[in-house]
Every structure is written in structure tokens, then in C-alpha cells.
Specification:
Layout: E1 8-13, E2 22-23, E3 29-35, E4 38-45, E5 52-53, H1 55-74, E6 78-79, E7 91-92, E8 99-100, H2 104-114, E9 125-131, H3 135-146, E10 154-160, H4 166-172, E11 177-182, H5 187-197, E12 202-207, E13 210-212, H6 216-227, E14 231-238, H7 244-252, E15 263-265, H8 267-271, E16 288-291, H9 292-298, H10 314-324, E17 329-339, H11 345-370, H12 374-397, H13 406-421
Helix pairs in contact: 3-4, 10-11, 11-12, 11-13
């Protein structure tokens, strides 16, 4: 990533004609490969590698989408020959011998069958958007929801501790959107208020800096009906990578993306984790849905956590609580949203600081609430080693040419500990 401070975001549809696949000359690029409305993988290309087209694009796509195509066609991982496009005779691998997959035409048929966009007619759905003084972003978010192929039964905007009437003015332009004020600052308060206002079977959450894809609501209904999970998270792709801070968050810190294959989490995952189950890897609160009946059983989001309180992690702590009580959470990349990352370095540093403060606070809350000592091991063993390794790496290699949020994260962790010492977890 040395010298790369922005990337163009490009999309290629693999169900189309391979001869039309191309990436033109220009700036550094991130190319995402899709099968209709479902992303299957991505690759990063530097300016010097462009342009590329046809077979060369197919070779890149073959590697980038191998895991996802393998999952959706065989429910197993596989490898592909480097000179084949992602739907041309890949080879499934096993510990003992390779097994040939069906012919390309059959693979395309299997992808269509597995990823078919089924009608979403059954469970009722409310989308809750929590916002605070970002009217432009909120407008974009509502417009994207209005463009849904299967619109939700209700959209609720929760204006959290507003300092002006900006959000109310935005919502007034959309008569079908419900406007609710939550005067207590904190994302957990806002989300709980949204849940109280919702009456549907399913409730999905997104943020005002997110643009949902047209099929997002339909996919939520489809997945939660078919899979029977208690809660769902989905894939979060970057909406733009036009600044160094956005690129650092997405490529240096991993962003919000959690891969292109579904994963289901169960209570055994939490119980068996010696160093605290990494529940934040399940997904992001900017793209989650849950059953209202399950929420009533598990309890509200912890108001000691979340933006406006002790950093963040109110979503992951709730998932942890759900799993600890025997529930299931599914991550499924068919439910896709686009997130506008913080564009300025100062904003990113503040965000990372809040993340670590909330993470530390959540570890302590999870330990006290469930008695899982792995959370304390992570706090006092895993995390210090993590920070030391990063510090040594930066001293040795200069951080790969990019600025670091290391000190902001350390300060956030210390704030989380101070929050605990001051009685925040009691």
C-alpha cells in the first residue's frame, strides 16, 4: 500500500459476457466481482497494472471469487487454475484428492439456483436509522431505502440528542418515514428507542452514513425466513476510498467487511473461546437485523456502551449476550450495504479511539455478566501483546508508508480501563 492514498471503486458483473470484462487505465482500483446482486470477491490493482481486459480479468476474478463460488456451488472451498475465469471448471480440493466440479455452464446454473432472489413476502420488516446532525448523509440513506426492490413495511428515523431541527426537516420530505426523538445521547439509547417504536417481526438497523443496496431488505427477509437465525449481519462494502483515512480504515484496519461466504455462530463458539470470543468479527451494527421477539428475550442494547457513551461495541455485546443465551447469529454477504468511512485522519483517529474504549468496556461487561474469563485474558494478555507487536513493526518497517492510529487506540483502551475503575461496569 506504499504510496497508495486512494482507489477507484469498480464493479464487474460475472454473469455477463466475459469479453466485456475490462478495467481501464487510471488510478489505483478496487474491483468487486458480482453475480447479479451478490458480491463474490474483490481484488486490488495498482495503476501500473492497468488496463486489463478479458482473460486477464477472468484470471483475477478466479482467484478473488474462488471461496465464494466454491461455497455457493459445492459448500466447500476450492482452487482454480490461474488461466480460467471464475465459472470455468474450478477444481475442488480435499485433504486426499482433487475433485472436478461440473462444467462451466452447470456452475453458472448452480450459482443462479443458490443466489436466486426469492420473493420476500412473509416476515414484516422495519428499518431503524439512527442519526445525529448529519442531514446530507441521512437524506442519501433514506433515498437508498426508498429505492429498495422490496421496501420495508416501516422506516423509523431516531434523532439522537438533536442540537437542531436538521434531521426533522429531512424526514418531513418523506411522508412515509416515522420521526422519533431520543433526547438521551448515545447510540444504544437511540437503538432501543427504535426497537420500542417498531411493531414488525423483523427489525433491521443501519446508520445515516450508509447506503443500502436495492435488494438489502428483500435479502434480509429471505435469509431470516430460510435460515431461521435469531439475528443477522451482512456485508459492508466501502462507498468510496478517495482519501488516505478511508483507505487506511478499509485496507489497513480491515474495514467492516467480513468476507464473501456465510458464517453461522452458536453458543458453543462463545463457551469454547479461551481468549474471549471475537464477537466483533460477526459483522457491523451498520448492517444488522434481528427478531423483535428475540430482542425482548435477550434485553435491550447496553446503554453503557455505544457512541455517546463508552465508545462503541453495543452491537457486538448484544450478539455476545444472544449467543451466551443459546441463540444463533448468521453473517450473510447477500445482504449488502455501502458505508461512507471517515474521510479525515482526525475523524478516523477519534473513531478508532472510541472503538477501543468500547471494546475494553464490553470485555469487562461480558466477563461480569457471564463469568467467561476469556474476556479478561484478552484484555490483559492478548491486547497488550497486540499493541507491542504493532509498535515494534512500525519502528522496524515504518508502518508501510501510512500513518497509524496506534496511539489513539492505546488511549482508547486506557479510557476503557479508567471507565471500569470509575465504576462504569457496575
Amino acid at each position: 500500500m506504499t504510496g497508495v492514498k486512494s482507489r477507484a471503486l469498480l464493479n464487474i458483473q460475472l454473469h455477463g459476457d466475459p469479453s466485456a470484462w475490462s478495467v481501464e487505465s487510471g488510478q489505483h482500483a478496487r474491483v468487486t466481482f458480482w453475480w447479479h446482486d451478490v458480491p463474490l470477491g474483490h481484488c486490488l490493482l495498482d495503476r501500473a497494472e492497468l488496463p486489463i481486459e478479458g482473460v486477464a480479468v477472468g484470471m483475477l476474478a478466479a482467484v478473488a471469487t474462488a471461496g465464494a463460488v466454491g461455497y455457493w456451488t459445492t459448500r466447500a472451498g476450492f482452487q482454480v487454475a490461474a488461466d480460467m475465469d471464475p465459472v470455468s471448471a474450478p477444481i475442488a480440493t480435499s485433504p486426499t484428492r482433487p475433485t472436478a466440479l461440473p462444467k462451466p455452464a452447470e456452475i453458472r446454473t448452480k450459482l443462479d439456483e443458490s443466489l436466486r432472489h426469492t420473493p420476500a413476502a412473509t416476515p414484516s420488516l422495519t428499518v431503524v436509522v439512527c442519526t445525529r446532525e448529519r442531514p446530507v448523509a441521512l437524506t442519501q440513506c433514506i433515498i437508498a431505502l426508498n429505492n429498495s426492490t422490496a421496501p420495508p413495511d416501516a422506516i423509523i428515523v431516531v434523532d439522537n440528542a438533536p442540537a437542531s431541527g436538521a434531521a426533522r426537516d429531512v424526514v418531513s420530505r418523506f411522508p412515509h418515514v416515522v420521526y422519533v426523538v431520543e433526547p438521551r445521547a448515545g447510540l444504544s439509547h437511540a437503538r432501543n428507542t427504535g426497537m420500542d417504536a417498531a411493531t414488525t417481526e423483523l427489525v433491521a438497523f443501519t446508520d445515516d452514513d450508509v447506503e443500502v443496496t436495492p435488494s438489502w431488505t428483500a435479502r434480509i427477509r429471505q435469509i431470516m425466513s430460510a435460515e431461521g437465525c435469531d439475528a443477522l449481519t451482512g456485508l459492508v462494502l466501502p462507498a468510496q476510498l478517495s482519501t488516505e483515512a478511508q483507505l487506511r480504515f478499509e485496507e489497513g484496519a480491515g474495514g467492516f467487511g467480513r468476507g464473501y461466504r456465510p458464517v453461522e455462530y452458536h453458543s458453543a463458539d462463545v463457551v469454547a473461546s479461551r481468549y474471549g470470543f471475537p464477537v466483533w468479527q460477526i459483522g457491523a451494527g451498520a448492517n444488522m437485523a434481528l427478531r423483535r421477539a428475540v430482542f425482548e428475550r435477550v434485553g435491550p442494547f447496553d446503554t453503557r456502551l455505544g457512541a455517546g457513551a463508552a465508545g462503541c461495541s453495543e452491537d457486538s455485546e448484544w450478539w455476545y449476550r444472544l449467543l451466551a443465551q443459546g441463540g444463533t447469529v448468521r453473517y450473510d454477504p447477500r445482504a449488502v450495504v455501502l458505508h461512507h468511512h471517515r474521510s479525515q485522519w482526525k475523524e478516523l483517529s477519534a473513531q478508532k479511539k472510541a472503538y477501543m474504549e468500547g471494546h475494553v468496556a464490553a470485555l469487562i461487561i461480558q466477563w461480569r455478566r457471564h463469568g467467561h474469563f476469556g474476556n479478561i485474558r484478552r484484555l490483559f494478555s492478548t491486547m497488550p501483546r497486540f499493541f507491542v507487536r504493532r509498535a515494534v513493526y512500525r519502528m522496524a518497517f515504518g508502518g508501510n508508508g501510512m500513518r497509524s492510529t496506534w496511539w489513539a487506540e492505546v488511549r482508547g483502551s486506557l479510557r476503557g480501563l479508567r471507565w471500569f475503575i470509575a465504576g462504569g461496569a457496575s
